[in-house]
């Protein structure tokens, strides 16, 4: 079996938002998965994940969300997103492997992962917080990015001066925890010039 990078080293940690100043706790590890593992994992997941089109009701009309999605997890980890209840698909090997790595690095447990495929720069995710009640109080969300680097924006829900823009590169890990989801929103904006795909995996722990 191919060997995956052993996860981040302490020196690679970048503190993005610090709870003392901003009511958010966001850390970025640019080298969580190194090459060639990141590229291998990208191709494995592009073909191995059961990517689905997802629709949403907006103002009485059903619209496709601008990305492909898939939800994997333990059988009891049901999750509501885009207004619908989702039954998890059973874990596949590469996702199980990543989950184990994250659990030991972050010393927490996850029972599910939301996979998002941004086929090109026309795909995106609008402003939102991952604050569904199933995630519990102060959830830890571990977000792994593979493939095309994309912009990621954070903004405080009420203070317009508090904003943060960053680029999530291939193999990186972004951890959002503490009161981040309570006080902040995040988005992946469209970047029309981008033609290459990106996969993002957000590992979560659904309270069952
Ligand atoms: O694609 C990303 O980096 C973010 C995904 C996200 O916010 C989510 O799945 O809730
Ligand atoms: Fe999110």
From TrEMBL:
Q: What keywords were assigned to this record? A: Dioxygenase, DNA damage, DNA repair, Iron, Magnesium, Metal-binding, Oxidoreductase
One function term, GO molecular function aspect: dioxygenase activity
Record keyword Lipid metabolism present: no
Q: Does the keyword DNA repair apply?
A: yes
- TM ranges: none
> Alphabetically, which GO biological process terms does the record hold?
DNA alkylation repair
> Per the database record, which ranges form the Fe2OG dioxygenase domain?
109-207
Name any cofactors this protein relies on. Answer: Fe(2+)
Fetch the InterPro entries from UniProt: AlkB-like (IPR027450), AlkB-like_sf (IPR037151), ALKBH3 (IPR032854), Oxoglu/Fe-dep_dioxygenase_dom (IPR005123)
What is the official name of this protein in its record?
Answer: 2OG-Fe(II) oxygenase
| Protein's organism | Kangiella geojedonensis
């Amino acid at each position: 079996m191919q060997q995956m990078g052993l996860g981040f080293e302490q020196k690679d940690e970048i503190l993005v938002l610090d709870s003392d100043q901003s009511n958010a706790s966001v850390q970025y590890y640019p080298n969580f998965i190194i090459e060639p593992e990141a590229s291998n994992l990208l191709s494995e997941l592009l073909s191995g994940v059961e990517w689905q089109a997802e629709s949403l009701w907006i103002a009485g009309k059903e619209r496709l969300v601008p990305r492909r999605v898939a939800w994997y997890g333990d059988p009891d980890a049901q999750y509501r997103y885009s207004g619908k209840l989702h039954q998890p698909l059973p874990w596949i090997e590469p996702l199980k492997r990543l989950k184990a790595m994250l659990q030991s690095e972050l010393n927490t447990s996850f029972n599910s992962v939301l996979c998002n495929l941004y086929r090109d720069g026309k795909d995106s995710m609008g402003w939102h917080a991952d604050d569904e009640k199933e995630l519990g109080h102060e959830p830890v969300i571990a977000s792994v990015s593979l493939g095309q680097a994309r912009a990621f924006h954070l903004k405080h829900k009420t203070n317009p001066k508090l904003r943060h823009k960053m680029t999530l590169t291939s193999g990186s890990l972004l951890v959002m925890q503490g009161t981040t989801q309570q006080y902040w929103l995040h988005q992946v904006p469209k970047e029309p010039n981008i033609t290459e795909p990106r996969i993002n995996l957000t590992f979560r722990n659904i309270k069952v």
